[in-house]
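User: Last request for today: this protein with nicotinamide-adenine-dinucleotide, please.
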Amino acid sequence: MARIGFIGLGNMGLPMAQNLIKAGHQVEGVDINPASTVKLAAAGGAVAETAKIAASRADVVITMLPSGKEAREVYLGSAGIVESANAGTLLIDSSTIDVETARAIEAAAAARGLLMVDAPVSGGVVGAEAATLTFMVGGSTQAFVRAQSIMEKMGKTIVHAGGPGNGQAAKICNNMILGVSMIAVSEAFVLAEKLGLDAQTLFDISSKSSGQCWSMTTCCPVPGPVPGSPANRDYRAGFTAAMMLKDLNLAQEAAHQAGAKTILGAQAATIYDNYAASGEAGKDFSGIIQYVRSR
Ligand code: NAD
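Assistant: Here's the final one, the structure of the complex with nicotinamide-adenine-dinucleotide:
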């Protein structure tokens, strides 16, 4: 049983923290939104006023924050986690943030003798609730091995992707594939409509052919072929267009810094930007088919 400080109890963080409590860990949570800490307390967790207080009492600190800006502030700001954690504390940042910030935080943690991993996740709120998340982990082997038993209580698949920042690198590369493939599948279904080819027929053929991919067979953007896909519930998220846009922008930032040309990734970011700006940022990202159809 570990004493765990959990910072960021939003849509993802709260169910993740609840799973750690169920597994017998002592969890002390922090969130700037009091409604979130009330829910953690109701689930049997303790509440700390600040990240500094929680970090100073914890064996393990986990963060699940919106972006690199909050992560930098919470880890490196005055009274941040890196300054407040005791020697030997393990830090796990599961937020999706830019690679550069992840590496800067991990370097600061290492300079203080703290073990740290960047461990962004995929699987969404459903995966967080069911403890079936996939963790993509960057950091030393020593940090990964220590973090593994904690992550196992929140996820099913845990992959060591290499050194610091490589978990974030894996996450943005994966989501760039997802964003591009969802647009490609949407364009194909819209073209089929215009050619008089039935959506179910295209699905039956393509889902068994070389066009097969997750965006088609699990999150199909047209209603019907995949009953569980958000298209069947008016594109209620799921994984929002705003989140896809965030990840595509992170991929573009990383590509720019690394000198990589990602032409379709850049196009996908522009298309999701336009879709989100049209008032649909809160819709599931598969709703992009409505934008494609409207062009
Ligand atoms: P969220 O906005 O619901 O939760 C973030 C929480 O952090 C909020 O409760 C907020 O009040 C809190 N917070 C912000 N600044 C803080 C601070 N300084 N101190 C303490 N708490 C603070 O977001 P989410 O959906 O839970 O996502 C969290 C992270 O997980 C993001 O980086 C997101 O990209 C990533 N992610 C989300 C999903 C998803 O489906 N929601 C899937 C995979 C990855």
